[in-house]
Input
Amino acid sequence: MTLTPVADPMVDIEFARITARLEPFSEPDPEQGGEPAPVSTTPAPQETEPKQGERPAERPEPADR
Output
């Protein structure tokens, strides 16, 4: 028995959305002559404690569970 894929537009939309997010991280295709993207060596910003007299950053309220 062969399974037949079901055409679901929501699956296509979700796949396109995920693929678009992953494209910057995809490996270049050597057959296409692509070169790897430059890798950033700058460290990610770290959260710091507020200085005296500063208000702490507003944090979003946790979603109801």
The CA atoms of residues 7 and 13 lie 11 Å apart.
